[in-house]
Amino acid sequence: MSPFVTVAAYAPPGVGLLAVGIVAEVFGPHGEGVPGFDFALCTDRPGSVPTDMGVPLTVTHGLDRLASADLVIALPWADFRTPPERAVLAALSDAHERGSLVSAHCVGVFALAAAGLLDGRRATTHWRFAELLARRHPGVTVEPDALYIDEGRVVTGAGAAAGFDLCLHLLRREHGAAMANAIARDVVLPSHRDGGQAQYLAAPAPEDCRDERLAEVLAWARENLHQPLPVAELARRAVMSRRSFARRFTAATGTTPHAWLRGLRLSSAEELLETTDLPVEEIARRVGYGSAAVLREQFVRRRGVPPRSYRRSFTNTP
Predict the structure, then answer these.
(1) Rounded to an integer, what distance in angstroms lies between the CA atom of residue 294 and that of residue 307?
(2) CB 15 within 8 A of CB 52
């Protein structure tokens, strides 16, 4: 299937304004150099739609917009404990049957569950409501700690700002790392957080001089991916013991130094495969793998295809 172009976000009465802002920011216009999407909000009955903040939205599209969208996103809403109307559930189900990519984050996931689209699948939602989702829908395998879970044509995400992670993952999966990175830069966001990363962190932002030092080390690592970058060297640059560095790193990022570096190397390799004609051997060197064979092994294990197949899928280069 071709990557999605038309995007319809379902905004029920009481929709979360943050969620509306996230999808509009990601799939709205981004200026020259970034292809646009045919993006629209839709709702049960077009007109004035109340939001969770008490500020109404004017939504001009009805549920029929879901029937023509390549990507359908069910947004979270205040009264999520009450299932949407049958017409909404039917529209979501029909979109999935038609072949659309269907997604939701936060408590918007409850709409997909009510439509039966999560039965027999793994899913995540806001950690606070994961137990409720599991209790109401025992056919769903709920993973409360994940940022997002990709089950093919059904993708779910965690709460609040994790909607950005979900949207960027969908962009990366369907349109490639170059577009996802370009939009992330435009929105001033990290280009990629792995779906298995923890939803919430003990220390999510730098708060003291050590965290500032850690941020400097991470920036240095991004500029020096071609080097081996052992944890001991990163710890030395942060003026910490290796154990303290690993503990501080995990508290600040939600993942380990090894996992962070691996994700960064693979993301950089993806963008080079998409946007350059460099040989795979040279790409492997630039992102810090000792050989093309090592890059291939990691790429197949983490991305499911070898580098050359990935390049052909985005560039049609033999």
Answers:
(1) 11
(2) yes
Which CA distances in Å does 114 have to 64, 134, 146?
A: 19, 12, 21
pTM: 0.72
Tell me whether strands 148-150 and 154-157 are parallel, antiparallel or unpaired: antiparallel
Distance CA(282)–CA(280), nearest Å, equals: 5
Distance CA(148)–CA(163), nearest Å, equals 9
* Rounded mean pLDDT, 286-298: 93
Dist. CA 280–CA 278, nearest whole Å: 6
**Alpha carbon distances (Å) from 102 to 28, 87, 111, 113, 282:** 18, 16, 11, 12, 37
Name residue, tokens 């909000």. Answer: 41
- Report in angstroms the alpha-carbon separations of 269 from 68, 110, 287, 292, 300: 34, 36, 6, 11, 13
What span, in angstroms and rounded, lies between the C-alpha atoms of 37 and 216? 35
pLDDT tens, position by position, 97-144: 999 999 999 999 999 999 999 999 999 999 999 999 999 999 999 999
Cβ neighbourhood burial of 206 (10 Å; 0-12, 13-18, 19+): middle
| Tokens coding 32 | 């020259």
What amino acid is encoded at 233 in this protein?
E
